[in-house]
Each structure stands twice: as C-alpha cells, then as structure tokens.
Amino acid sequence: MEIIITPDPAAASREAARFLAALIRKKPGAVLGLATGGTPVPLYRELARMHREEGLDFSGCTSFNLDEYVGLGADHPASYRRFMQENLFSLINLQADRIHIPDGLAPDIPAHCAAYEKSITDSGGIDAQVLGIGSDGHVGFNEPTSSLASRTRIKTLTRRTRSDNAHFFESESDVPHHVITMGIGTIMEARAVLLLAFGENKAEAVAGAVEGPITASNPASILQMHPQAKLYLDEQSASKLARRDYYRWVFDHKPGWQRDR
Ligand code: PGA
User: Fold this and answer.
1) pTM beyond 0.70
2) What number of other Cβ atoms are within 10 A of residue 165's Cβ?
3) Which residue, 19, 100, 157, 170, is most buried by CB atoms nearer than 10 A?
C-alpha cells in the first residue's frame, strides 16, 4: 500500500487527480471505476478543472460506478446517478453510452448484477478504481463481514452507514436499507485502487485497514493484498496511523520517475 498524507482534502485530491490524468493521457481508452459520497467531490472538481483548463480528454474513457441505492431512480435527488451527473459527468466529456452505474430500479437484481460484472469484463477491466471508506471500513457498500471474494450483488446497509449517509436525504428514515454494490472481489481486480479518506471520523477505519489484520470486519483491509493500492489521506484521517512518519518520509523522497505510478 502506498500511504500519501497531505495537509488537506484539496491537496490529496490534486494528487489523486494527477495520477488519473497521467493514466488517461497514457491510455485514452482507460476504464475508470468511480465512487460517490462527500469524499470524491474535490477530486471530481479537480478533474473537471483539468478538462476545462488543460484539455484532459475523457471522450475515449469508460466508467463504472461502485454502487447505487435500490429503489431510487436516476431523478431522485439522492441517487448516485444524479450525484455523478451533477458532480462530474455534466462537467467533462465522458460519452453517455460509456457510463455505467448499477440501476436501482432493476426488476431482476441478480441478473442485473451479473450483467454489470460482464460489462466490466467486456470493457477490458477497470484500470483505476476510486474508493472512499466508510467509518466502519466499508468500501463500495461492502459492509463489515462481506465476503472478501464477493461480486456485484445486493447488500443491506448497517445502521451506522444509514446514519452516516442521512445528510444526503431529508431524514434518516428515507435512507434505503438495500443497495447494489460491486463486490470486494470485483474491486480487487482493478489494476490500481485509489482510496481517499478525509476527517477524524475515518481515522480508526484507516488505521485498521492499513496496520490491522486483513479481516472482513474491516473490508478495506483487503487492499493490503492489492499490488497497486494508493491511499490519499488528510492529517485527520491519518492521525491514528502508528507509522505515519515513515509514510511521510517515503512519499517525500520518491524518485521523480515514480511519481505518477
Ligand atoms: P463519504 O462516504 O465519502 O460520504 O464519507 C464514503 C463511503 O461510505 O465509502
């Protein structure tokens, strides 16, 4: 794992955007795995700026989002389809027919999940997957005790996640109980994983994921087994890492040729 500790979310997001931009410039047909929630908003703002001011071209890219709430259609204000439209897709030139988000209204959810997996495979696989982390260590909506080999499927949210996400809804009781999410096995097949985590609320989950044992009780800990997992943190989310001085030193002394890898 590469642990990148930055002063604030804006700096962390600039680093992550730099990595994605280098990938897209090298591979214009890159397949991007995207995430929702509060965390990736500054990353998407930076990617939109790079598109606008530096000509970063997404027209050959394909995207797959991690998850969606069951029961919410594209127009629902809290749907992830709507979130992505507002925070990224309306600001860049990704082609509409190359955008994939699980359909929260799919009539046959298992068939939809199997088809979603197949389209990821048919696209050649995800080059870089953006992730947030739940305060309970979830990635995508793979809650603690999710199988570390799981594929795209329906999941039931924990009370804690429903409470963490209530600010996107009018009230906590409006947060759906069920979601469709890529599995941990799906995420682990991405060629690179970029996990962003900001704020004190994430410090414990981050410390467990990086320095604790690999366990389904903290699903993000499986990233210890990923050959290219990069964690972009701010000071608060890094505050419970025992080896944070070492991670800082490593990053500050990276040779130039290694910077965008
Ligand atoms: P957040 O959610 O970015 O809104 O904190 C992260 C997650 O649940 O994965």
Assistant:
1) yes
2) 21
3) 157
